[in-house]
User: What shape does this take?
Amino acid sequence: MKKNKFKENIIHGIFLLLGLITVGFVLLITIYLVISGIPAIREIGLINFLFGKEWASTAAEPKYGILPFILTSVYGTSGAIIIGVPIGFMTSVYLSKLASPKTKYLVQTAVSLLAGIPSVVYGLVGMLVLIPNIRNIFNIPDGSSLLAAIIVLSIMILPSIIKVSVTALDSVPKEYEDASLALGATSIETYFKVSVPAAKSGIAASVVLGVGRAIGEAMAVMMVAGNAPNMPNSIFQSVRFLTTAVSSEMSYSSGLQRQALFSIALVLFMFILLINATLNFFIKRNKE
Assistant: This one.
């Protein structure tokens, strides 16, 4: 008995240590970004940095306004969620409740493969297929645009939404559905009025993962969005995201420019933290 208790204490200590290590890494990243990002914000000015409309870090008189990057990230993530969430949600309901075992296996295998495709491959396919089609369909000079980035991001978030939502729906007790059907509800009514509400916390978690994937993506959107620091006044305009602003200039940056890039990373980090905290707040409130 004492031996088993000792083993349980060891296992508990290992898990506690691993958890503390994870939290420690997050704290270290946060502290590093704050220390590295604050100096540039102080020198440029918080208002000028966050609400400035022009980014010209290599000009004779450099300007460090990141409002175009913030709006582009907001619009791009919102567009991807608007397109990707309904598709992913309906696909997960179909796979969990309506698809045959063979169809479910084939589609879930395809979704898993979709999740394993590197970001650069999404960007390459977008450059070769999506951008020329956008240019031809809408008769515009260049297909590299916010629209192309939204479409690519909406595809990239599908695996996270589908896999987590299917798991949540599959975990709903069958007794709930049997009781609904016994009361005269149709199968579709049961799925959407009983199963989905019962799995809403898992579905909401999938949306959180999708938002994190969309807002944190860099390589794919850099290849299809044009990577130009323009205000996102149109979905057909070449734009630059917060993530691509850092990755595209960090290799040759120095001085205040390099510090400003760390400040962008800090803003992105706080932005993601705020979104996750907000979504998790509503998820927990719905559980209660």
User: Anything to note?
Assistant: The CA atoms of residues 92 and 166 lie 5 Å apart. The beta strands are 55-56, 63-64.
